[in-house]
User: Which sequence fits this backbone?
């Protein structure tokens, strides 16, 4: 079967904070922001040489450690499960950022280097000077950046429960994105046993087994792709699936995750897990009853379910607020404790 070619992600240039906030983010569509990293000191260092970029980062290093993923050369930089799906084809280990930078430089000329990836380093805590000197004007200054270092590696298709802006500082990256509606066609792996946090697609993007995963062909028809160079950024909307390839032997990326809903509202993913546990195995007739309950109370397909009640009578169904969230959380804990007993 011929593999459908993905659609290029729409490119934007000279994007102002107002355009980003009022047009790009509300569209819930990915956007390639060419040259968006306007404070270019670190980009210039990265373009000069990997050693220059490493020296630039080391100048800010506080000696912090970060989770580092290391894979044998045999995996070809593709982080994944082992063949039996009982473990991973790489190791995680804590390593100082400076040591990882040294290893990346030492591996530049290796004919078959091991895969090395340092992910989600909180920059304000680990490289505070970098956070001070390099600001992305498109975003609120309160959004903390994170650092990603590595050689030629591939991060399998996954999603984030947040908006994301990924900025390439050194090297090149290719992002292939799938909209949230393609979930059924992505053949997602375990929800509780993941590579690095979020569930992943089990389909290899560049070698899909259409016999085993036939619906993935439909997902590819909806795929969008972007190639980023130093200075470019990519807006990845909430819950969009993305496959990321680092395409040079030395790559640096800074990303910004942020949510538009307050943390006290809780995690929708946790609700999903509990729903699987408590509803999925019910007899069909009972599942349909609970489907109707969720549509009524959560998705409100029939309108406001408490419109007939006064504000005081609505309780935890009233206007969302931290105090009501605490009441709901206490009710859930009470129910869970009762069932455990």
Assistant:
């Amino acid at each position: 079967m011929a593999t459908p070619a993905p659609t290029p992600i729409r490119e934007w240039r000279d994007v102002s904070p107002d355009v980003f906030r009022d047009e790009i983010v509300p569209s819930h569509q990915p956007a390639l922001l060419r040259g968006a990293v306007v404070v270019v000191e670190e980009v210039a260092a990265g373009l000069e040489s990997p050693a220059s970029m490493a020296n630039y980062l080391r100048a800010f290093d506080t000696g912090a450690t970060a989770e580092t993923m290391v894979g044998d050369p045999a995996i070809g930089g593709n982080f994944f499960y082992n063949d039996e799906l009982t473990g991973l084809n790489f190791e995680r280990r804590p390593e100082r950022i400076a040591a990882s930078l040294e290893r990346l430089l030492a591996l530049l000329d290796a004919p078959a280097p091991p895969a090395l990836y340092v992910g989600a380093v909180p920059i304000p805590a680990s490289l505070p000077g970098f956070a001070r000197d390099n600001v992305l004007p498109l975003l609120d200054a309160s959004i903390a950046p994170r650092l990603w270092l590595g050689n030629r590696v591939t991060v399998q298709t996954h999603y984030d429960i947040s908006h994301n802006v990924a900025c390439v500082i050194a090297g090149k990256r290719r992002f292939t994105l799938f909209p949230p509606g393609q979930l059924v066609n992505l053949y997602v792996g375990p929800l509780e046993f993941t590579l690095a946090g979020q569930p992943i697609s089990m389909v290899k993007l560049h070698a899909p087994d259409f016999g085993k995963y036939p619906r993935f062909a439909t997902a590819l028809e909806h795929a969008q792709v972007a190639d980023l160079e130093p200075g470019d950024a990519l807006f990845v909307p909430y819950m969009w699936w993305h496959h990321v390839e680092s395409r040079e032997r030395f790559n640096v990326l800074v990303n910004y995750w942020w949510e538009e809903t307050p943390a006290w509202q809780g995690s929708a993913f946790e609700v999903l897990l509990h729903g699987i546990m408590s509803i999925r195995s019910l007899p069909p007739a009972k599942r349909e009853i609970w489907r109707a309950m969720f549509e009524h109370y959560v998705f409100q397909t029939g309108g406001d379910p408490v419109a007939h009640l006064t504000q005081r009578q609505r309780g935890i169904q009233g206007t969302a607020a931290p105090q009501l969230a605490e009441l709901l959380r206490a009710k859930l804990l009470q129910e869970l404790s009762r069932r455990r007993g």
Remarks:
- The first strand starts at residue 7 and ends at 8.
- The chain has a mean pLDDT of 91.
- The chain has two domains: 7-259, 264-340.
